[in-house]
Amino acid sequence: MNALAPPFDPKEFRRALGMFATGVTIVTTTAADGTPIGITANSFNSVSLEPPMVLWSLANNARSLPAFSDSTHWNVHILSNEQEALSNRFARAGEDKFNGLALDMQPSGAPLLTGCSARFQCKSAFKYEGGDHTIFVGEVVQYDSSALPPLLYVTGGYALASRKAAPVSTEPQAQLEGAVYSENLLGYLFGRAHFQFLHGIRGTLQQRQLSDTDFFVLSLLSVCQPLQVPEIAAHIAYTGVDLGTGALQSLVQRGLLVQEAGGLRLSPTGSDAILHVLAAAKSVEADLVDRMGEMESAALRNLLKQAILATDPGLPKLWQATAPAQPAA
Amino acid sequence: MNALAPPFDPKEFRRALGMFATGVTIVTTTAADGTPIGITANSFNSVSLEPPMVLWSLANNARSLPAFSDSTHWNVHILSNEQEALSNRFARAGEDKFNGLALDMQPSGAPLLTGCSARFQCKSAFKYEGGDHTIFVGEVVQYDSSALPPLLYVTGGYALASRKAAPVSTEPQAQLEGAVYSENLLGYLFGRAHFQFLHGIRGTLQQRQLSDTDFFVLSLLSVCQPLQVPEIAAHIAYTGVDLGTGALQSLVQRGLLVQEAGGLRLSPTGSDAILHVLAAAKSVEADLVDRMGEMESAALRNLLKQAILATDPGLPKLWQATAPAQPAA
């Protein structure tokens, strides 16, 4: 336990408060002179159902405090997981935060942003003292929501949420003393997820008489071709397949690949085959996303990418850079 | 936009509010007669830094309202992801909620629970009107926090948080018209995570002259043995490996498996081999969890289990039931 007086370390205190996860909102209003005002806040909360009321709080030294204090209406926007940049924009002072933003009609007179998970148009009800902040309580006069997964803020960074799952089977009960193989091992879960997904397209692979290795080679070339044999081998090596030249020669002999000056390339037959397999994969993927839900799928992609970065043995980059890399959160 | 009057659908309104993710807290106090009081709340928020203040709100018709209204002190506990059952216990009325719970020393006189992500001991500062709720603002007099990942509540259910990741490479740029193979496909991410993990133990597998298939068979038997050949084949089939009898016979010939009346079983050599491989896997796993962090690892396990359930082709259960299955969240 940290006693708060004295000494009191505000950074440490903020870190402890950061264990409480929140969504992220932007609260907007219009100043007396008509200027649109907006600020990022995660101090939002629902308060009352009858009448419907919500609250949020703002630092007393915030430049926007007078505008919110004087205003009769303000709007709360619960940001979706695609709106991290918007959150950052409205968290900073200065500049015209609304520049270039699409705004919906504003019956309340306060700006209404788009692309959010939910929005609440409020009539100011109470303003309360809260130490160095003012607590604003508003009555909700209109609201709407979307299916967009919400953006989160927790332990000082942006995050995604995912529902808690039921266990895959149950607790491990290894029969071999010292064996630690369990369903809670990421290594086991990766393999099972991978093979079950592949299982969903195995029929299509078999129809086309494609082995798993053939599939890796053809899908690699569908992203990036032509490639020389050693380049293909370098991309595939981490799967443990020692490609040699046999597998590739066989694909050439079967008319799926053609040899060019620049390297190997998909033939029309090869393109047709991989497009069919990828269509099957897309269908398995769509079914999986449908079952898991958008929020969970986004979080799973996000976490698999972290795991892949954390275990990257130094693979050659597969995809071309088309946009500057985002900073790591 | 849903206008709120009339008609106003409270369920729909609550669903929209549910898009705002929150942590989960239990707030405790002691009634005038000494009875410990506690209630689950997700209406918590930080308010002020100087003085350090937090708030939460409670329904005016809550049975615990008089106790909190009369009390000079209350404690807020930010629950960790292991405390879902505790959250449910304190969300229900009746019964002795504190029965059997470990409590820390209570300098404030209010019960202090253990195993939380963070705890704030507060002196009641303000009570404000908030429609059908009362808003409690307290000054934090002591606090502490742990490294336990917090429990979340979002869109009407418990959830885990995970930090947003940087992209694995960058946006896809397929060269083949219509090809949809991209780094955002779960199918691709599963495979890459699986093979990269396996890459980390490949050295150990090669030392022991074990193929991927040998590894699957030996680890299966480390969990559950003896098994008949068709049972092993049924467990392995989803990986696409057609086991036949060749691979198993080879493992017997090499002295890794022994044939018994009940089926195949690990020999002492086989046990030794798989224990070494599993130790290597455990080390890769520990390194991965260390790099990703506990919060992300827990969320990733959770989501992989959802994906595995969603794509399960009807595999035989690998692990014995030792505890009743938890209800799906």
TrEMBL record, chains A, B:
SMART domains, from UniProt?
Flavin_Reduct
Provide the alphabetized UniProt keywords. Monooxygenase, Oxidoreductase
Recorded GO molecular functions are: FMN binding; monooxygenase activity; riboflavin reductase (NADPH) activity
**Residue span(s) of domain Flavin reductase like:** 17-160
What Gene3D superfamilies does the record point to? Electron Transport, Fmn-binding Protein, Chain A (2.30.110.10), Winged helix-like DNA-binding domain superfamily/Winged helix DNA-binding domain (1.10.10.10)
- InterPro entries named among the record's database cross-references: Flavin_Rdtase-like_dom, NADH-dep_flavin_reductase, Split_barrel_FMN-bd, WH-like_DNA-bd_sf, WH_DNA-bd_sf
Q: Does the keyword Membrane apply?
A: no
Family statement: Belongs to the non-flavoprotein flavin reductase family.
Name of the protein in question: 3-hydroxy-9,10-secoandrosta-1,3,5(10)-triene-9, 17-dione monooxygenase reductase component
Naturally occurring in which organism (per UniProt): Simplicispira metamorpha
